[in-house]
Design goal:
Length: 193
């Protein structure tokens, strides 16, 4: 259910920056019970107007690539995302893993790490790095809220495949599974100057 909430959370009215999500590739391995997906998110450029005076930052849209590996046997979802826009100047990478809680398999534990590496922009690099860090944390908070809402919508549906094809499920039969997110202070953010 958590994997489905992730795969159906965008686009959303609660996330103003993600405008479109394109599924580019799906590979299934029935022997290993795994599914690989690669998608591209089309996002609004969040860079403030003052920084957009730098020509390279004045992009109308930002493209982000996400790769995911869903292991149904282990009930684990691994994600890797990176920016495609500005690759030569900045690297924004994020890795997340969702897996059942060791003591209560009805709960899900999420571990996430983000890396911001800005290079080749000169003295503005540190300013852009600070902006990227703030934007990343705000996106994490919005993503959590959207995931929680999606879990509530899907709380009585057990079929992953059914939910991938539907945006809304309405019922009140069962309580949603608990998802355990570490506090924002527990996230590892590694910055390179």
């Amino acid at each position: 259910m958590v994997a489905n909430a992730h795969f159906t959370k965008y686009p959303s009215d609660k996330e103003k920056f993600v405008k479109k999500l394109e599924l580019k590739e799906v590979q299934e391995d029935s022997k290993q019970w795994t599914t690989y997906r690669r998608s591209i998110a089309h996002c609004l450029n969040p860079i403030p107007g003052i920084l957009r005076r730098i020509p390279v930052l004045n992009e109308p849209a930002i493209l982000l690539e996400e790769e995911s590996w869903l292991n149904c046997r282990e009930k684990e979802l691994s994600l890797k995302s990176k920016n495609l826009t500005w690759e030569t100047y900045a690297s924004l990478r994020e890795q997340s893993v969702f897996r059942p809680h060791a003591e209560n398999p009805d709960w899900t534990v999420m571990a996430q790490e983000g890396i911001i590496d800005i290079h080749g922009i000169g003295p503005f690099g540190r300013v852009i790095e600070m902006f990227a860090e703030t934007f990343l944390y705000a996106g994490i908070r919005r993503g959590f809220a959207i995931m929680e809402d999606r879990l509530m919508e899907m709380k009585d549906t057990n079929s992953f495949e059914d939910n991938l094809n539907k945006k809304e499920v309405v019922s009140t039969k069962a309580a949603p599974p608990q998802i355990v997110f570490p506090s924002l202070s527990d996230f590892h953010l590694i910055l390179f100057c």
